[in-house]
Amino acid sequence: MVQRFDVTGADGVRLAAWEFRAAAAEPPREPAELPGEPAALLLHGLMGRAFHWAGTARWLSANRRVVALDQRGHGQSGRPPAGSGGSTSYGREAFVADAEAVIEQLGLAPVTLIGHSMGALTAWQLAARRPDLVAALVICDMRASALGEASQQEWEDWFRRWPLPFPTQDAARRWFGEDDPRVERPDPGRGAFFAEVMHEADDGWRPLFSRSQMLTARETWVHDAHWEELAQVRCPTLVVRGLDGELGRAEAQEMVRVLPAGQYAEIPDAGHYLHYDQPTAWREAVEPFLDGIKTSA
Fold first, then answer.
1. Cβ 110 vs Cβ 104: under 8 Å
2. Measured between alpha carbons, how far apart are the two ends of the chain, in Å?
3. pLDDT category, 31, cuts 50, 70, 90?
């Protein structure tokens, strides 16, 4: 069962937060009625949505509260304009403040943060800023080093090549999983990831997000390294990478070394969307870490 909560984020942006519960027969609850059980907040990556975590939420919700957030500009959350104040609307401060607001307004603290890609960066920046709110952290395939201007230009070029609108959702799945020039070999996990962020418009299937706003959001973090904030994270942290993902082994292991309480896991036969590529191996990597945190607590 999934229940939606509307949360007020930074600058008054309306955010859609979704609680996944194992007991379908349980009646809907208000935040004030929710018990102080262990909680996890799931943060998707750039262009993602809360429901990308549905598979993970199914097993997580067996023994904890599980909330996934549609971050600003994504899913069913608000989309502040990225005009003259765009860098502020889609900057790091806004994303971190939104996650902080969800934790406080839904009473999730001390929470386990699980973030993929950009969502992982948001998670460790929040853990560094507000250690009182965060019990543990899982970083899923996100680099701490700067990606640089060339990376941003590559994304601009890639967005221009999208053959929008797609005639069907399956056509979107095939393009992102097979036909996209950035795909070296068929990648069904990637195809599924992008198919789920398409919606049916009047002329075909289009993304739920604005590509220009996604570029604005990315612009605010690709030019900076984030090692200093990573080193400030004091809670137990698991760094997970797909063997064929964007986070290299050497950098991932250096991230673990920098973290005061870091652990490392890698998933074979998985790329950047590793929780889609290998959901069973993803669970096998993450669940023992979370169980260990719970036992220690």
1. no
2. 28
3. low
Question: Are the CB atoms for 34 and 106 separated by under 8 Å?
Answer: yes
Instruction: Count the Cβ atoms, other than its own, within 10 Å of residue 87.
Output: 15
Spatial separation of the C-alpha atoms in residues 262 and 232, rounded to whole Å: 12
Closest CA to 96 of 68, 129, 70, 74: 129
Q: State the average pLDDT for the chain.
A: 93
Q: Region 14-24: what's the mean pLDDT?
A: 89
Percent of the chain with pLDDT over 90: 90
pLDDT category at 23 given cuts 50, 70, 90 is low
Q: How many CB atoms lie within 10 A of CB 162?
A: 16
SS3 106: coil
Q: Is the C-alpha dihedral spanning 90, 92, 93, 94 positive or negative?
A: positive
Burial (0-12, 13-18, 19+ Cβ within 10 Å), 264: middle
In contact, 15 and 9? CB cutoff 8 Å: yes
3-class secondary structure, 42: strand
Distance CA 19, CA 245 (A): 28
The first and second tokens of residue 123, run together, are 């998670």
Distance CA 68, CA 136 (A): 16
Does residue 230 carry a pLDDT above 90? yes
- Residue 26: what residue type? E
The DSSP line for 142-163 is --SS---HHHHHHHHHHHHT--
